Amino acid sequence: MKLLFICTHNRCRSILAEAITNHVAGDQITAASAGSSPQGEVHPLSLKYLAERGISTVGLRSQSWGEFENFHPDAVLTLCDSAAKETCPVWFGESVQVHWGLADPSKSGFDEVGQDALFNKTIEILERRVRALLESDRSSFDRQSLELRLRQIAAQIH
């Protein structure tokens, strides 16, 4: 199974989701991330909090969804509200598209302690969602059942 996580700037939530999925799922799921308007750099706190949890940050970069024309994901998961409202490129047309909305921990306006809590909460939610997907019977997924399961996971784990 292949997943593409989308956030407008591809520097925080989608990067976290890519790294966490690849770490937790191993060879069962291949994850990538992209943005409609990438910032060109990964947020330093994303790298910090991933590293603190022993999750590899090697190869993570902020990139455009235009680079994924040949990726052919089974599902495109948007993580920010603005990305959810954007029209995905036509080559994602065969992919299930589901919104897994999360608050942006990099724009929290909190002090260091508050930001630490928000990053860790975001990472924990993403990890729980990926684990829930792994526990699903993925062999029976068709397009409709995959979309339903991804929506259920988002509704149950927040």
Q: Enter the CATH topology name.
A: Rossmann fold
Overall SS class? alpha/beta
Q: Kindly state the mean pLDDT as a whole number?
A: 91
Trace the largest sheet across and list its strands. Answer: 2-1-3-4
Which CATH class applies here? Alpha Beta
The CATH homology group name = Response regulator
Tally of strands: 4
| Residue windows where pLDDT falls under 50 for at least 5 positions | none
Strand content: 5-15%
Overall shape: it is: globular
What is the succession of H and E elements? EHEHEHEHH
Helix content: 40-55%
Radius of gyration: 15 Å
CA distance, first residue to last residue: 23 Å
CATH architecture: 3-Layer(aba) Sandwich
* Count of the separate structural domains: 1
Largest sheet: 4 strands, parallel
Number of helices: 5
What does the secondary structure layout of this molecule look like, with pairings?
Elements: E1 2-6, H1 13-25, E2 30-34, H2 44-52, E3 75-78, H3 81-84, E4 96-99, H4 112-135, H5 143-156
Parallel strand pairs: 1-2, 1-3, 3-4
Helix pairs in contact: 1-4, 2-4
Can you describe what's shown?
39% of the residues are buried. This protein has helices at 13-25, 44-52, 81-84, 112-135, 143-156; strands spanning 2-6, 30-34, 75-78, 96-99. The protein starts with a strand and ends with a helix. With 158 residues, it is of the alpha/beta class. It has one domain (2-156): 3-Layer(aba) Sandwich (Rossmann fold), CATH 3.40.50. It has a four-stranded parallel β-sheet. The protein is 41% helix and 11% strand.
